[in-house]
Amino acid sequence: MYKDFLHKKYGRQYAVAQYSYALKYLDCLDNPSRIVPLHPSTKSNVMKALICLTKYLGTYLEYKEKLKQHGVKWTRPDSFDSFVRIMNNNHSDLLEWYKNAYGILDDNEKLYLKFMLLSGLRKKEGIQAFNLVIDLAGSGRLAEYFNEDLSMLEHYKHRQFLRNTKNAYITIIPRELVMQIANSKPVSYSAIHCYLYRKHLKLRLKELRSFYASFMVRHNIISEEVDLLQGRVSKSIFVRHYLKENPVELRDRVMIALTQLEQSI
Questions:
Q1: For the purposes of burial, counting CB atoms within 10 Å of the CB of 9, is it exposed (0-12), middle (13-18) or buried (19 or more)?
Q2: Coarse DSSP helix, strand, coil percentages of the chain, rounded to the nearest 5 percent
Q3: Phi, psi dihedral angles at 146 (to 5 degrees)
């Protein structure tokens, strides 16, 4: 079944969204012109879902030609919208939110919150990484994941962190924090969500990722390195052919930045 195919190929949330869009806009397979007037974000999601469906059905090339005949093109992100987002300092009160959330969560959830701030991972990756540290430490196999010499979680060695579009490769993180997590209890995203909701606090975990990226760039980590730390590998000629990293030197610079980030909270 197509639904099973999606769940094997993508994470649960993305697979559900793909299936939902494909089902809702199934008639666009025969009539792609219906896609044209959609809002840019909806249009992009619908096209992704239908292209994935046609690849599964083996009709992708025919559908690609049909999109071309109807003048349906990918919508590029609006540069002005990006400018407004950059200049809108949504991080101005994020650390205050962090302190408030940290003060009301359980001990293991506090560790997770700190881990999210210092790792820059996506919320699902953060849950997986946090709980994997606990599982492997419990069976004496933490070295399969945490490289103590480089103070690095090596996500790339574990399949669940490697997906088609959103990956996690490495995270440089203080050893002390990893050891605290290893002796902690597993966390649940839904439990954290519900608890913060009951305390009338918004769930702003996603913002910690962008805060991390902005902070690191301002503290001696170049944007290409931040991309690497957050699971992105640019298609630029520089990154693909010329960028070389010394893991020890990168570790040292990241750890200095993380120390400064910890001091800011």
A1: middle
A2: 65, 5, 30
A3: -105, 120
- Give the structural domain span for 15: 2-69
Q: CA distances (Å), 159 to each of 9, 20, 125, in order?
A: 12, 26, 12
Q: Are residues 25 and 111 in the same domain?
A: no
Q: What is the DSSP string of 103-129?
A: HHS-HHHHHHHHHHHHH---HHHHHHH
Q: Say if 81 falls within a structural domain.
A: no
Question: Mind listing the pLDDT tens digit for each residue in 100-133?
Answer: 999 999 999 999 999 999 999 999 999 999 999 9
pLDDT at 90 over 70: no
Q: Is 4 exposed, middle or buried (0-12, 13-18, 19+ CB in 10 A)?
A: exposed
Residue 155 domain-assigned? yes
Q: Is the pTM of this model over 0.85?
A: no
Across-strand partners of 164? Answer: none
* Phi/psi at 99 (5° precision): -65, -40
